[in-house]
Design goal:
Blueprint: H1 2-7, H2 11-37, E1 42-43, E2 48-50, E3 55-57, E4 62-63, E5 68-71, E6 83-85, E7 90-91, E8 96-99, E9 103-105, E10 110-111, E11 116-118, E12 120-122, E13 135-137, E14 142-144, E15 149-150, E16 155-157, E17 161-162, E18 167-168, E19 173-174, E20 182-185, E21 190-196, E22 201-204, H3 215-224, H4 233-236
Parallel strand pairs: 1-4, 2-5, 3-6, 4-7, 5-8, 6-9, 8-11, 9-14, 10-15, 11-16, 14-17, 15-18, 16-19, 18-20
Antiparallel strand pairs: 12-13, 20-21, 21-22
Length: about 240
């Protein structure tokens, strides 16, 4: 019976088995090097990073449970970074990020659960298995300014810019640029309010003039407040239990 089983094994099965062993072994190594090189970054349970060699993540950031970051790495051809996550950023539980041309996430970014940032897809030839298709960029890179909040189940799709201090409402799908200090909601996402620095209030509508402050100065003002930003351990992972 054993001989019959061996005869029925296809070469493709053996190849797939070796691939599985290779990727599992490599995964252990990459997790170890990630922990070693990012000792001030918290990683929740079941985090998966494909294209780890393309990722740069700054200290005091965290990746929640089951975060999946999928970076087109060109077959490991180089270690040029294309995804940048700045300090004090929290990627929420069950977030999905897929990147082709690049992604920059500013400092103090905060996403809730089940959010997505999508700037890549697969070849759309219906006579070719999509799962085996080449990676295709959705326009240009995505740039997210400092202190942006993504509500639960919200999505950013395609190459675009999200201005600093903005809020993306729960369930919103953002497919075009969002100016700084804006609140957007809906599908597709539209601006419902802008923050007025002079009055210190959110003003309904989208017709307000652009803020009289640039991104770097905005970030400096936040840092000057010296507000202690704690690592969100309990928000990031079930392994930390109840508060």
């Amino acid at each position: 019976m054993m001989k019959e089983w061996v005869k029925n094994i296809k070469k493709t099965d053996i190849y797939d088995l070796f691939k599985l062993v290779f990727f599992r072994t490599r995964s252990v190594y990459l997790k170890f090097t990630f922990a070693l090189n990012n000792q001030k970054v918290y990683r929740g349970k079941d985090v998966q990073i494909i294209g780890y060699n393309k990722l740069s993540i700054k200290p005091y950031s965290s990746l929640g449970d089951s975060v999946w970051i999928n970076i087109d790495n060109g077959g490991f051809k180089d270690n040029i970074k294309t995804v940048f996550i700045e300090q004090h950023s929290h990627i929420g539980r069950h977030n999905f990020i897929t990147v082709c041309n690049g992604l920059t996430i500013g400092a103090y970014f905060f996403s809730s659960g089940y959010c997505s940032i999508i700037s890549a897809t697969h070849n759309d030839d219906p006579f070719h298995p999509y799962i085996a298709g080449s990676v295709v960029a959705l326009r240009e890179e995505i740039t997210i300014g400092p202190n942006v909040f993504m509500g639960a189940n919200s999505k950013i799709v395609g190459g675009l810019k999200i201005g600093f201090g903005s809020i993306i409402g729960a369930g919103a799908i953002v497919s075009r640029d969002v100016p700084p200090l804006s609140k957007v909601v809906g599908v597709p996402a539209t601006i419902v309010a802008r923050y007025c620095i002079d009055s210190g209030k959110w003003i309904s509508g989208d017709l307000m003039e652009e803020p009289s402050i640039c991104e770097s100065d905005y970030l400096k003002l936040i840092e000057q407040k010296k507000i202690k930003v704690h690592m969100p351990y309990h928000a990031a992972s079930t392994r930390n239990g109840w508060i």
